[in-house]
Design brief:
Blueprint: H1 23-26, H2 48-60, H3 82-88, H4 91-94, H5 106-123, E1 127-129, H6 135-152, E2 160-164, H7 170-177, E3 181-185, H8 195-201, E4 206-211, H9 224-233, E5 237-242, H10 254-257, E6 261-264, H11 266-269, E7 284-286, E8 298-302, E9 317-321, H12 338-351, H13 355-374, H14 378-381, E10 385-386, E11 401-404, H15 406-412, H16 416-425, E12 432-433, E13 442-445, H17 453-467, H18 471-475, H19 488-493
The chain binds pyridoxal-5'-phosphate (PLP).
Pyridoxal-5'-phosphate binds next to helix 6.
Length: 507
């Protein structure tokens, strides 16, 4: 029996970690003397029930989709079915390592492959990789592919990326990280893309245009085909920000709209716990002419098992395919965020070929809630505008919508932020606030398809109740949350980046 198996003196017990090393024993060749502990750290000691109570208490101080309605526009916070958690914890998925040989991970590879195929089909793209682990990382990776495409064509002079002024901040940030100059174009009066502004902005230096459809105002860009024609005629590429994919699946797709590259936010469209920057998955899809630049590797399959009989039993052999020399390289250390991919796969599998029902219900819920909010009693109706412009649009919105609380501010000084904070007292997450910036006193609301009519009715009623409240109550909210109104300017100027607790330098 080797030392490895008799570490704790219990033969056959398997491998265990050694006891914490103290004093001289710890010094080993790699630990510098000054870093060796002379005593155990003063970690709190607690029994198991105490520990459970502590974390349960902490979780109760937090707000999440499981504790209340979460109408955070653009962020698509939908219910995460518990079945997905069971699936992702199956040993064949949960207990494998990215470096395991392909014959041991055929099941996971098959899931990756199917997810790629499904995304390609739904988006009208030719090749998909699941590697990026956030929407923003997907944006960066896809814009890098576009950059390499121009480089391969001897068109390095294309150094500008066009974004509309309603774009999510990650769009210009990602393009800028690739070294591009950003050209921002204003929206038209109805909040949609201004084609004249686009015509004026494109030129021989245009590398790409980045846009989401529907836009962050929840409006479908009805002139998108003309926009893609204008950009393509100038030699530029069209990039689709798929954060709002929830609104259009099965109805139309970016491929049909003329886009060349897309990112998807699996953690939004296909449900997945997220927030605070992760954990996410931001796969990208591209048309054939960009495929050779994608990050490696991509899950692939061969049609027959002639050369290896150990496949998953569906008559295919799944493997990691290297993209080749023109690839932009890896954007993540392994193959993507496997847990997020499996949850998303489980989510879409429940819908199967009915996936478009998801988008239909998301759009229905959004229009219903907008209608109920915009038709309050005479007292509150003066406080809100449906945006982008007063009295408009008469047409439908998509999966999310924006309101302007400017009229309320003019009436009694109460701002959009005050109302958002007051909603916390009523047990709701605040809607997205002050984004897109082109809407004054903006609240951006996205109910998603997983909320019932009862929840939406209650939210609208509470929203109206807040508008009728005494301004003092609203401007000092929240009153019932563990943390009350914070002075955000003070907090931004006096950053506390370290916990003030018992940590000292000597620890
Ligand atoms: C429209 C839009 N684009 C891109 C992103 C970036 O996605 P991620 O947060 O996954 O990086 C977001 C995120 O909220 C978004 O709403």
């Amino acid at each position: 029996m080797s030392d490895l198996f008799s570490f704790n003196g219990a033969e056959g017990a398997g491998w265990s970690q050694p006891e914490p090393m103290l004093g001289d024993d710890a010094a080993g060749p790699t630990v510098p003397e000054g870093l060796v502990r002379s005593r155990l750290p003063e970690w709190p000691r607690a029994s198991e029930p105490e520990l459970v109570r502590h974390y349960t208490w902490l979780s109760n101080r937090n707000f999440g989709i499981d504790t209340g309605f979460y109408p955070l526009g653009s962020c698509t916070m939908k219910h995460n079915p518990r079945l997905n958690e069971r699936i992702v914890q199956l040993p064949g998925i949960d207990r494998i390592h990215p470096l395991q040989p392909e014959h041991q991970i055929q099941g996971l590879l098959a899931i990756f492959y199917e997810m790629q195929e499904m995304l390609a089909t739904c988006s009208g793209m030719d090749v998909v990789t699941l590697q990026p682990v956030a929407g923003a990382q997907g944006e960066f990776a896809a814009i890098r592919c576009i950059q390499e495409f121009h480089h391969a064509n001897g068109e390095d002079h294309r150094d500008k990326v066009i974004v509309p002024d309603s774009a999510h901040g990650t769009n210009p940030a990602s393009a800028s990280m690739c070294g591009y100059e950003i050209i921002e174009i204003p929206s038209a009066d109805d909040g949609r893309l201004d084609l004249d502004a686009l015509r004026a902005a494109v030129g021989e230096d245009t590398a790409a245009m980045m846009i989401t459809n529907p836009s962050t105002l929840g409006l479908f860009e009805i002139e998108i085909l003309e926009a893609t024609r204008i950009v393509h005629d100038s030699g530029g590429q069209m990039y689709y920000d798929g954060a709002n994919f929830n609104a259009i699946i099965g109805k139309t797709d970016p491929g049909r709209m003329g886009f060349d590259a897309v990112h998807y936010n699996l953690h939004k469209t296909f449900a997945q716990p997220h927030g605070g920057g992760g954990p996410g998955s931001g796969p990208i899809g591209v048309k054939g002419h960009l495929a050779q630049f994608l990050p490696s590797p991509i899950a692939s399959r061969r049609e027959s098992l002639d050369d290896d009989p150990r496949g998953v039993g569906d008559g295919h052999w799944y493997y990691w395919r290297d993209v080749g020399e023109s690839s932009i390289g890896k954007v993540q250390q392994w193959h993507g965020n496997a847990g997020a991919v499996v949850r998303a796969w489980a989510f879409y599998r429940r819908y199967g070929s009915d996936l478009e029902r998801m988008s239909e219900h998301a759009v229905l819920n959004s229009n219903y809630l907008r209608y109920v909010i915009m038709n309050p009693g005479p007292k509150t109706s003066k406080a809100i505008h449906a945006m982008p412009v007063e009295g408009a649009p008469a047409d439908l919105v998509m999966h999310e919508f924006t309101l302007s609380l400017s009229p309320l501010k003019e009436l009694n000084g109460v701002t959009g932020k005050d109302v958002a904070k007051r909603l916390l007292d009523y047990g709701y997450m605040s809607p997205t606030l002050y984004f897109p910036q082109i809407v004054p006193e903006c609240l951006m609301i996205e109910p998603t398809e997983t909320e019932s009519k009862e929840v939406l009715d209650r939210f609208a009623a509470d929203f109206h109740a807040i508008l009728s409240e005494d301004p003092e109550t609203i401007t000092t909210a929240p009153h019932t949350t563990p943390v009350k109104r914070v002075d955000e300017v003070w907090a931004a100027r006096n950053l506390v980046l370290r916990h003030p607790g018992r940590l000292t330098d000597s620890n």
